[in-house]
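Figure 3 (text version): structure tokens given as input.
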């Protein structure tokens, strides 16, 4: 059944929410698992800049989930990042972000689930929390149906129902008011809630769902939803729109360097396509754990520190003094180092947790990152590079995202600031020689040169270190 598709008739389905918190991650993950149980090759996707939901997708589908973001990425890139893996699958399931029409601003659709669905010409199923409504749910569905006639809104799944009669009442009202079928209804189950904390759901790499819990989740979704009709809806999608350009090389570039990638419970926020782009442009990626490993990987020529929850593991990170020293020495020797958010915090002198306890870190970035009792940064950002760095040339602009609860205490020298954050009158990050570190998360698909420049820098250092 597994094969590359050339006809572009990729079966696909978007699972959207009326709002955040309606259960779309649980339901999307359950649908992926229900399709996979039928022997189908399922490829998962997530709309927006989310790192956590894709981990649960991977548990159900067995392959990494990919992000599709129509604000950070050009439309043609969104289509390419969808089509490349979808061509190797029997069905693609795309989980939305926030509410169906929530995007970058209140004035347009860019960045929204609806926009991505339209770029892919994909049918959409709307998940609605019906816990405290009855006939009023039909008014909500009718509003979503009429808000954008160009969207292929094709059905509704009701979540958090009190009883079978509750579902029947709402379904009757929706059928009377709209032409949309109710394709599923899930009764209220406390054990279907996924665990959360300050940045959202707890990551799957930290506390993966056990086989029994995952089976229960899939069972509940499969019992409550019409899986046959959902699959038929996905298969009715038709040809996927073409994309005109490619951000990948035609053939994979032979390996020219090895890049160490921090990957453990403290650092797991990466876009799958960032890894793919680095690999396609000639990097061999070497995972390692700043928490557990006592030695830096041998024979590597660059370091990539993604985001995550270093504040939750600050004591263990600080206690791994041999790893701190190894990274400090690698940076001092000129190895290219790129760090985002949690990785940026790790490179600073110390991290202070929510109780004010301070833990020493690598120390190649001046200042201490201190956790706050409220969220500090959230949202899309466009930045302009102040100088040539590992990823960008001076004056280049790129779109990204930030989400953090910490602040950097201690002003960085102006000559070492990495970016101007456009439209906000502030700067961000640290750029000095071989180091680029920032609170801003970047998707390398936003600019085809990002991955190429990083690989090139690591390759140059590799060649220099051998001389």
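Below: residues designed for each position.
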């Amino acid at each position: 059944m597994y094969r590359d598709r050339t006809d572009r008739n990729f079966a696909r389905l978007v699972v959207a929410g009326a709002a955040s918190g309606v259960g779309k991650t649980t339901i999307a993950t359950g649908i992926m698992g229900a399709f996979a149980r039928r022997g189908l090759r399922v490829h998962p996707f997530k709309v927006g800049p989310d790192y956590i939901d894709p981990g649960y997708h991977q548990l159900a589908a067995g392959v990494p989930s990919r992000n599709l973001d129509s604000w950070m990425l050009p439309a043609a890139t969104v289509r390419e990042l969808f089509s490349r893996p979808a061509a190797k699958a029997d069905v693609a399931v795309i989980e939305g972000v926030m509410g169906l029409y929530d995007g970058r601003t209140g004035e347009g659709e860019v960045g929204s689930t609806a926009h991505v669905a339209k770029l892919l010409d994909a049918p959409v199923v709307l998940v609605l929390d019906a816990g405290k409504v009855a006939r009023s749910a039909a008014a909500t569905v009718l509003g979503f149906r009429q808000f954008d006639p160009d969207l292929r809104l094709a059905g509704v799944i009701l979540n958090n129902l009190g009883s079978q009669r509750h579902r029947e009442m709402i379904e009757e009202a929706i059928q009377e008011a709209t032409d949309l079928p109710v394709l599923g209804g899930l009764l209220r189950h406390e054990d279907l809630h996924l665990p959360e904390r300050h940045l959202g759901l707890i990551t799957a790499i930290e506390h993966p769902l056990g086989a029994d819990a995952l089976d229960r989740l899939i069972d509940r979704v499969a019992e409550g939803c019409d899986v046959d009709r959902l699959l038929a809806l996905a298969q009715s999608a038709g040809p996927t729109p073409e994309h005109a350009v490619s951000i990948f090389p035609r053939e994979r570039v032979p390996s020219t360097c090895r890049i160490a990638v921090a990957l453990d419970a403290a650092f797991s926020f990466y876009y799958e396509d960032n890894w793919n782009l680095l690999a396609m442009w000639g990097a061999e990626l070497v995972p390692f754990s700043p928490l557990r490993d006592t030695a830096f990987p041998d024979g590597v020529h660059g370091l990539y520190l993604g985001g995550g929850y270093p504040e939750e593991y600050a004591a263990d990170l600080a206690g791994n003094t041999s790893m701190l020293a190894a990274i400090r020495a690698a940076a001092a020797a000129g190895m290219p180092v790129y760090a985002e958010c949690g990785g940026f915090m790790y490179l600073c002198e110390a991290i202070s947790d929510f109780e004010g306890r301070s833990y020493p870190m690598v120390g190649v970035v001046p200042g201490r990152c201190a956790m706050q009792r409220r969220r500090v940064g959230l949202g899309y950002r466009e930045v302009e590079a102040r100088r040539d760095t590992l990823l960008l040339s001076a004056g280049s602009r790129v779109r990204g995202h930030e989400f953090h609860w910490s602040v950097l205490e201690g002003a960085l020298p102006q000559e070492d600031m990495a970016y101007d954050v456009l439209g906000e009158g502030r700067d961000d990050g640290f750029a000095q020689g071989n180091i680029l570190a920032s609170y801003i998360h970047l998707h390398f698909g936003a600019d085809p040169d990002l991955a190429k420049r990083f690989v090139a820098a690591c390759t140059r250092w590799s060649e220099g270190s051998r001389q």
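The mean pLDDT is 92.
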